[in-house]
Amino acid sequence: MMSAADETRVAIALHGGAGTIERNAMSEELEATYRAFLDDAIIRGYEQLREGRAGLDVVVNVIQLMEDSPLFNAGRGAVYTWEGAHELDASIMHGENLDAGAVAGVSTVKSPIALARAVMEDSPHVMLASRGAEAFALERGFDLVSPEYFATERRREALEAYKANEQAGLKPEADHKFGTVGVVVLDQAGNLIAGTSTGGMTGKRWGRIGDSPVIGAGTYADNRSCAVSATGHGEYFIRHTVARDICARMQFGGATLDEAASTVVMEELIEADGEGGIVAVDPAGRVALVFNTPGMYRASIDATGRKVVGIYGEDETP
Ligand code: ASP
Q1: What is the distance between the alpha carbons of residues 285 and 287, in angstroms, rounded to a whole number?
Q2: 179-204: string of b/e by CB count within 10 Å (b at 16+)?
Q3: Residue 59 has pLDDT above 70, yes or no
Q4: Whole-number Å distance between alpha carbons of 221 and 171
Q5: 315: closest CA among 4, 31, 125, 88?
Q6: How many CB atoms lie within 10 A of CB 132?
Q7: How far, in Å, from the CA of 59 to the mean position of ligand 1?
Q8: Residue of the nearest CA to atom 8 in ligand 1?
Q9: Which of 2-16, 72-86, 109-123, 176-190 has the lowest mean pLDDT?
Q10: What's CA 253's distance to the chain center, in Å?
Q11: For strand 99-106 and strand 127-129, is the pairing parallel, antiparallel, or unpaired?
Q12: Which SS3 state, helix, strand or coil, does residue 15 take?
């Protein structure tokens, strides 16, 4: 029998991307829209966990809310590649037995996180890419959409700005509000699950794949340590195996979640010039929301029921 205390021992954290997100560059209206969205999404996820839903369902459900919203760089609203297309990446991991699924470079799949889950549960593989992943989606009866589904004016303008910068010989500062989405949970069964979904980075070329679908880099979950979803400049997160490093520091080094996450994001990554952040949860339902950029869209409810919603660096953190 579960005691009342056990029933409440669930936790959830989410991000909607990290980057140069500054108060003076955002209208009050847009800020309010983001805050309302983050607040609603975290409460919905938390309530599902409290009802006893499996963490895997909750991670997929909450990520799908964000994939369907043009506010974030995932699903609808994904950034453009150099050629003006959308190539989406996603991954999911279950901390009980280290099951994982990932898709990279898909252009026709409405919900890449759902496809990543199908790769995990319904294929012998962990990671499928581009045309092969789309053939798998077709076989499994997934919703396929035309390229216009992902298109937004805001992301089109970001591509144009990126190209103009590059042509002017400037460092191609893409839309530095990266905007990837990710969710981590502790469910009532004591399982830790992490998921991440993204359009990648504006102006990416040559089939570039970031950290989001790379297990150990953008996503990792292990019931013995923590669940992590990352956002930021993916090349650095791949090289520093950010998500796995945070979990390993807890498992083998005895670090707390906060210590492990802060060392990796605020020391290792800063030293390497790797911009971004993470959300994470541990088996006790503690959460960490750590980023080295001016802002990160984020929200969490920890095992004590404490809710935090934030955008800028100066907003409250857990
Ligand atoms: N990490 C993602 C990538 O490099 C981008 C992001 O987080 O916004 O593809």
Answers
A1: 6
A2: bbbbbbbbbbeebbbbbbbbbbbbbb
A3: yes
A4: 35
A5: 31
A6: 14
A7: 18
A8: 178
A9: 2-16
A10: 25
A11: parallel
A12: strand
Ligand 1 binding pocket mutation candidate from 212, 228, 296 (most atoms within 8 A of CB) = 212
| Cβ atoms of 206 and 251 closer than 8 Å | no
Q: 173 falls in which pLDDT band (50, 70, 90)?
A: low
Residues facing 18 on adjacent strands: 296
What integer pLDDT is reported at residue 7 of this predicted model?
Answer: 54
The answer to whether residues 16 and 35 touch, using CB atoms and an 8 Å cutoff, is no
**Sign, Cα dihedral of 89, 275, 58, 221:** positive
Pocket flag, ligand 1, residue 292 (CB < 6 Å):
no
Q: How far is the CA of 50 from the centre of ligand 1 (A)?
A: 30
| Spans of all domains in the chain | 4-312
Is the CB of 201 within 6 Å of ligand 1?
A: yes
Classify domain 4-312 by CATH number.
3.60.20.30
Residue nearest to atom 9 of ligand 1 (CA): 200
CA distance 118 to 136: 9
pTM of the model: 0.95
Which pLDDT score is estimated for 1?
A: 39
Tokens of 258: 């906060």
> Is residue 33 annotated as a catalytic residue, yes or no?
no
**CA neighbor of 283 nearest in space, from 10, 7, 97:** 10
**Residues facing 14 on adjacent strands:** 183, 299
Q: 317 C-alpha vs ligand 1 centroid, how far in Å?
A: 22
Q: What is the maximal distance between C-alpha atoms in the chain?
A: 66
Distance CA 283, CA 302 (A): 11
Using CA atoms, how far apart are residues 298 and 13, in angstroms rounded to an integer?
7
Q: For residue range 232-283, what is the model confidence (pLDDT) as tens digits?
A: 999 999 999 999 999 999 999 999 999 999 999 999 999 999 999 999 999 9
Query: Could you tell me if the CB of 178 is within 6 A of ligand 1?
Result: yes
Of 148, 133, 156, whose CA–CA distance to 82 is shortest?
A: 156
Give distance in angstroms: CA of 232 to centre of ligand 1.
5
